[in-house]
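Local shape tokens

___
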Amino acid sequence: MAGSSSSTSGLASMITHPVSEKLAKNNHATWKAQVVATMRGARLEGYLTGKAVMPAAKLEEKVGDKTNKVPNPAYEDWVAADQQVLSFLLASVSKEVLIQISSKQTAAEAWRAIETMFSSQTRARAVNTRLALSTARKGSSTVAEYVGKMKSLGDEMAAAGRPLEDDELVEYILTCLDEEYDSVVSSALGRAEPISVSELYSQMLAFETRMNLRNNGHSSGSSANAANRRGRGGPGRFGRGGGRGGRSPNPSAHHGGRGNYGNSGSNYSNNNYNPRQANQGPRNNTSTSELLCQVCFKRGHTADRCWHRYDENFVPDPRHIAAAATTSYTVDTNWYTDTGATDHITGELDKLAFREKYNGGDQVHTANGAGSGNEEHTP
């Protein structure tokens, strides 16, 4: 009796704190968890599962030779507790569910009806959620959006009564990543210890930040390169290598972008402006005076710009050939005798640190025309 009174008082306090969300078609698992916890706290879970067996309504009592049936007080206590549990269940479900269980007489009957009603729906929901986990793709979404979506699907599995382990959710997240995250996948799978969802999320965020910074750097570099190609100082003529540089505010002068004709920042007046030279554009900052044509042997242009490059009958001026040969090669005007001898002869004694007078009868003429049979020589 004392136990029944305690249970009844526990129910009274329990009913004043109903579950936070009534049972509907999409929250059976969470609703069930709340109800079971409440019943266990009040030590009344047996009324849901049927383990709290209903006692007999009457007891036999012998009075002399007669046997009389009297009411069973335990039965009355059981009915009181059971009806309070049933009332708690009826108050914690939505109207659609209430219609299905309103005819049940005991809490156990109502509980079984609810389980039967939602069991098939729960299985289908779990299958569909697992399929959504398998086919999800990150695509253009951010890491925060993608991982948040996968966690929500994991919560759906828990709500369907099929909670995922942490490593299972990690596998789904890694499997559905795009190829650009292969390095993150390899790093996670190569660990000796399984990686948690929070650790994986941190790594993915760091990788995403690095990629964004790199992409922004490439974009800035491309913009800077495009600006340099347009020339420094605005769109004008005479850029580097014959391209286009900036135009001076002074209409009588053109400014090279950088180093046109071998001069950095040179200004050319309109009187000196030559369209042919501007179009030809010297390459590699080489001065036009250093360019030598291999067709006509004239200076100031190269063979690919020569007017005579397609003229098979053209014969270059010998003077230009000689001039090109003279300036192209440095000729040492000094004479050097190399006979393989161990002694060497010179007419300029001041250049010798050690010398010895020659006493033979031969004569030697040096490059300047001087000659003598008594020249000094070095040993």
Notes: The longest helix spans residues 197-230.
